[in-house]
Design a protein that fits this description.
8-stranded mixed sheet; single chain; 22% strand; alpha/beta
Length: 310
């Protein structure tokens, strides 16, 4: 028996959601908005909270500042049973903060990386890995840390765990082709539609996922409100999205990942994994804050039954 279902390494910060923001204030001017709310932010953190709410046991590896925000985030993790003893404390940086402006429309952000800038894969505590059956990886930076990533993946595979990984957006614009080598080592490999088109150079998502599947055995491409598709061991699967009113798309992709990994770890079929992912993504956009709409297992199944799609 393992202590944890999954171990996660990645970013964690405060998300400050600003609702009702129409325009920036002029110098010397004050602008009032409809609402400001504080949430757990960071893709890896949102993934962890959603998966934990579904009943999975998790441990988190990350870096937080020694400040009120850092204490708040640790308490939020502990509230949902996520093990925090593997989280490092920065003695030079404060906890990261991201301010999301007008998330219900075209979002814009003001972000401070803070303690997340100190995060690297070598901080993944192998004791936590040995207590788990699965590891979810983030923090890929293309050519800058590709070899480090490959080395870590080989170490993890040697320990007998399964791996999931979300490529994330490439800020450099290079879309490094080494990602294909990495895909061959990952058990559950996530991209969104735009990322898939950039990395493959294909003109449509069907060609992109076929190309990616030549390298990875389980490739999933998220299509936003259109749902998601995957190729698992050469077979194509698709599940349409659930129709909901979108309030805030922050963390929707990470919530999808959590739902999919929940299905994967529970032994669900590839199509059912897509359904879990789509449902978690839909619930995420239905509330402000990446994980605020997350459901427990019973609520998720009720949502899926009440909003059945073909």
């Amino acid at each position: 028996m393992k202590t944890f279902d999954a171990v996660v390494i990645g970013d964690v910060n405060i998300d400050l959601i600003v609702v009702g923001y129409d325009k920036p204030p002029l110098p010397g001017e004050e602008v009032f908005v409809d609402r400001m709310t504080t949430h757990v932010g960071g893709g890896a953190a949102i993934f962890s909270l959603v998966l934990a709410k579904l009943g999975m046991k998790l441990a988190f590896n990350g870096v937080l500042g020694e400040d009120d925000y850092g204490h708040f985030l640790r308490k939020q993790f502990s509230r949902y049973g996520i093990e925090t003893r593997y989280i490092k404390t920065s003695h030079t940086a404060n906890t990261g903060v991201s301010i999301a402006l007008q998330p219900e429309k075209d979002r814009s952000f003001i972000s401070y990386a803070g303690s997340n800038a100190e995060l690297n894969l070598r901080q993944l505590d192998m004791n936590s890995v040995d207590e788990s059956r699965h590891v979810h990886l983030t923090c890929y930076k293309g050519r800058a840390n590709h070899e480090e990533f490959m080395e870590t993946v080989r170490l993890l595979k040697a320990r007998g765990v399964t791996l999931s990984f979300d490529t994330g957006w490439d800020d450099t614009g290079e879309w490094y082709q080494g990602i294909m080598e990495l895909a061959g080592q990952i058990d559950v490999f996530f991209m969104n539609e735009v990322e898939a088109l950039h990395y493959t150079g294909c003109g449509n998502v069907e060609d992109a996922v076929q190309l990616l599947a030549r390298h990875g055995k389980r490739v999933i491409v998220k299509l936003g409100d259109k749902g998601a598709l995957s190729i698992v061991d050469g077979k194509r699967w698709y599940h349409p999205g659930y129709k909901v009113k979108a309030l805030d798309t922050t963390g929707a992709g990470d919530s999808f990942n959590a739902g999919y990994v929940y299905g994967f770890l529970a032994g669900a079929s590839p199509k059912q994994c897509l359904a879990f992912g789509n449902a978690c993504g839909a619930l995420s956009v239905s509330a402000y804050g990446g994980s605020a709409g997350a459901a427990d297992r019973e609520m998720l199944e009720h949502f899926m039954a009440a909003n059945a799609v073909m």
